[in-house]
Amino acid sequence: MKKVLTGLDILVAEQFKRLRGLRVGLVAHPASVDAGLRHAADLIRAAPGVTLAAVFGPEHGWLGQAQDLEPVDDESGKREGGKAETGSRQGPRVISLYGQTVASLRPTAEQLAGLDALVIDLQDIGSRYYTFQATMLYCLEAAHVIGLRVMILDRPNPLGGVVVEGPALQPGYESFVGPHNMATRHGLTMGELARFYQAARNLERSQVEIIKCAGWRRGMYFEDTGLPWVLPSPNMPTVETAVVYPGQCLLEGTNLSEGRGTTRPFELFGAPWLEAASLARKLNAEELPGVVFRAAGFKPTFQKHAGRECGGVQLHVTDRAVFQPVRTSLMLLAVMRELSGDDFRWRTETYEFVDNPIAIDLLFGSDRERRALEAGQHWREIAAGWEQEEAAWREAAKACIIYPV
């Protein structure tokens, strides 16, 4: 198995020399660990000559304690003894970048004051609507305004960097789950996304340093890296979850269960009114590449349909090389909407601080797909419309590529 070093591993090997003499802010979450599972906050605090002055937590909190859409207050989620670390010394400030308001998603100049550098170490999973990359963008923009140095500790894209998939994001549909136009499965690392955002958002003059991974290639899935998997958010327990997420997160825009409240979120899905065997037969009849659907029953313990028995399916990926998660979940939406009849509805509650457009339009990046489904257009025709947009994204992304195939 190939051994890959993350940006954090590189800093550890260099004994944090690049940060000597600096007061540092760290944007991190549970997966911000080195190859030995030591957390970046503890490593930086122990580094000679480095002061960890503040820890910023993205959605779910820096300890990953909060569920999706659950606000996290500043200074919450500290470790034992009321400190933000495991030792006996006074811990750094803990600042939430996912609070009660949309303004909380961006660090303020006051929160960044007194820092010499902002270090960002977040494990992304290669999907436009996985919000950690939006948090990185907002941090880059906030740091740019005040001239603060930023260091990105890069990590592998768990899905590799060869395949891109999904529709473009149209103007007017920007949000925390889509701050900028790109394919749903974008195929970039956080470091590469930072390069993209520098050019796309007029941040070229920012002081941004990317500590690259060593040994990672675009054709590698996470298991190929030799790195330990730590769930970066509460409902991302395995690499298998990450593989299906670029499509299955679309179910958040409906009243169908995406499997939260089960031990296999995003792999299990369904609703109380669906009959599992009939659903599985109809889905398998589509003969999609690299995936099989198994009839399953489940009872979510929280969120949608909590405590109710759901008829549904478990999605089993049999061949990642040909599996197309976004197209697969578009098909799931079409079929389950058809089978649900009047029981089906789009989610209209506030979603990621936005009331309008509704959630499914934010996730798709426009209202085009929703309107096409409502008009009875076949899902394959809808997906065919993505091909030019996917090609355009592949071309746009070329300029920010760091790692070879």
Topology of this structure?
Layout: H1 7-13, E1 23-28, H2 40-46, E2 51-57, E3 93-96, H3 109-112, E4 117-121, H4 132-146, E5 149-153, H5 190-200, E6 208-211, H6 239-248, E7 268-271, H7 276-284, E8 291-298, E9 310-317, H8 325-340, H9 359-364, H10 368-374, H11 379-384, H12 387-397
Parallel strand pairs: 1-2, 1-4, 2-3, 4-5, 5-6
Antiparallel strand pairs: 7-9, 8-9
At a glance:
The chain is built from twelve helices and nine strands. The chain has helices at 7-13, 40-46, 109-112, 132-146, 190-200, 239-248, 276-284, 325-340, 359-364, 368-374, 379-384, 387-397; strands at 23-28, 51-57, 93-96, 117-121, 149-153, 208-211, 268-271, 291-298, 310-317. Helix 6 (239-248) packs across helix 8 (325-340).
Provide keyphrases for this structure.
405 residues; alpha/beta; Rossmann fold; Aspartate Aminotransferase, domain 1; six-stranded parallel β-sheet; 12 helices; 9 strands
